[in-house]
């Protein structure tokens, strides 16, 4: 049986990476009703900004966070805020944005409400991923008490509450909602953006040791050849 590996492309500069990412995403989203799950963080922001200027049928495209900190949109940690500020403008001003947070006090209380909204999202699904220095993607943190159950669940829920331990990477944002492995299974294509030697070296070790139990390994094993990795060192 042929092993399906993700495709990896390495660029000299962030600007080159951003340009290729915009081109790939534009081709994914062109000419159809679809959903793009979007990760937050500093790496994809410039990509979203440039993508907002592309002439696509935005009124038939839906975007939604791949994970969310359980905070108001005015909070600096809100992925909804980041996505709206970087993408929902210019030609993409008419895109359909679906939040990953409800008005409930906790992600556990709001999980069903968010799930119902995500289940209504049009297929096909696509996703933009980033990776933390600890190997997490979305809000798949190995320190979370829900993590092992999340990685082994076999239902068809698209979202799940998760509560990682506080550390230098999570900051104080320990109440979150995240996509599930099933959501990744449902994605037709995925783009993972990596910047910096530390993250690149970690990624290479994960590709060379597919049995590692880091969250990014789970994502790679799920997506296989549907995943394109764009990196700078």
**H and E string:** EHEHEEHEHEHEEHEHHE
Number of domains: 1
Helical coverage, percent range? 25-40%
Unreliable residue runs: none
Overall pLDDT:
96
Structural class, from helix and strand content? alpha/beta
Organism: alpha proteobacterium IMCC14465
InterPro entries: 6PGL, Glc/Gal-6P_isomerase, NagB/RpiA_transferase-like
Domain Glucosamine/galactosamine-6-phosphate isomerase: 31-219
Protein name: Glucosamine/galactosamine-6-phosphate isomerase domain-containing protein
Task: Explain what you see.
This is Glucosamine/galactosamine-6-phosphate isomerase domain-containing protein. InterPro entries: 6PGL (IPR039104), Glc/Gal-6P_isomerase (IPR006148), NagB/RpiA_transferase-like (IPR037171). The mean pLDDT is 96. This protein is an alpha/beta fold. It is built from eight helices and ten strands. The protein is globular and about 40 Å long. Helix 2 (45-51) links the parallel strand 2 (34-38) and strand 3. It has a single domain (7-232), classed as Rossmann fold.
């Amino acid at each position: 049986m042929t092993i399906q590996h993700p495709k990896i492309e390495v660029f000299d500069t962030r600007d080159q990476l951003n340009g290729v990412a915009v081109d790939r995403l534009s081709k994914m989203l062109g000419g159809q009703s679809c959903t793009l799950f979007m990760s937050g963080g500093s790496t994809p922001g410039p990509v979203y900004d440039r993508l907002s200027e592309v002439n696509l049928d935005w009124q038939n495209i839906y975007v939604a966070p791949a994970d969310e900190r359980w905070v108001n949109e005015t909070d600096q940690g809100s992925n909804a805020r980041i996505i709206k500020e970087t993408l929902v403008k210019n030609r993409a001003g008419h895109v359909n944005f679906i939040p990953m947070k409800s008005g409930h006090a906790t992600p556990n209380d709001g999980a069903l409400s968010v799930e119902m909204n995500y289940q209504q999202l049009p297929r096909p699904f696509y996703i933009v991923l980033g990776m933390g220095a600890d190997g997490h993607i979305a809000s798949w943190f190995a320190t979370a008490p829900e993590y092992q159950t999340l990685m082994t669940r076999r239902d068809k829920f698209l979202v799940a509450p998760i509560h990682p331990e506080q550390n230098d990477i999570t900051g104080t944002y320990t109440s979150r909602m995240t996509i599930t492995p099933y959501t990744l299974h449902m994605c037709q294509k995925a783009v993972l953006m990596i910047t910096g030697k530390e993250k690149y070296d970690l990624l290479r070790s994960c590709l060379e040791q597919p049995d590692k139990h880091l969250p990014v390994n789970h994502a790679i094993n799920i997506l296989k050849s549907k995943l394109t990795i764009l990196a700078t060192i």
